[in-house]
Amino acid sequence: MGRMCEPLVVGRVIGEVLDSFTPTQTMEVTYQSNNLVFNGREFSPSTVSSKPKVTVHGGELRSSFTLVMIDPDSPGPSDPYLREHLHWLVTDIPGSTDASFGKEEIVYEPPQPNIGIHRFVFVLFRQRGRRTVVALPSAREQFSTRRFADDNGLGLPVAAVYFNSRRETAARRRR
């Protein structure tokens, strides 16, 4: 599996959300003011309130990608009975571009964790062709990244990254 996936194993993303995979693409997720997402980094909800820029590096322009953003800890990490909550879904992203060039199927919903520390996971899939994603979810709650990938013939992910976030207290927001 390699060193690139070790933080995903430690963070229980591989296992709880994704099956083991070998990353074959580089995905860069950046929030406002050049806040780069890397595995396990913590962001306040106010920092991630706007849609991030998600760039796919190294893909051929002919290839297309699907991006999924989920919270596997909804409504709380000790009892995530709504696992997974879908925050964003973008399809038909051309290789070597960013998500703004794709088709936003599910509008970005900013993370707003109420209890505990939540993981927010970005998963990138290579599509088998243009417009191959046809089975769209009917709800954000109880989404399954694995089932979505199976239903749309996406196979294993080609990249994934996650960050942590917790509820912002009034004292933290004032800083």
From TrEMBL:
InterPro entries: PEBP, PEBP-like_sf, PEBP_euk, Phosphatidylethanolamine-bd_CS. Belongs to the phosphatidylethanolamine-binding protein family. CDD domains: PEBP_euk (cd00866). The lineage of its organism: Eukaryota, Viridiplantae, Streptophyta, Embryophyta, Tracheophyta. This is Protein SELF-PRUNING. It comes from Acorus calamus (Sweet flag). It comes from the Eukaryota.
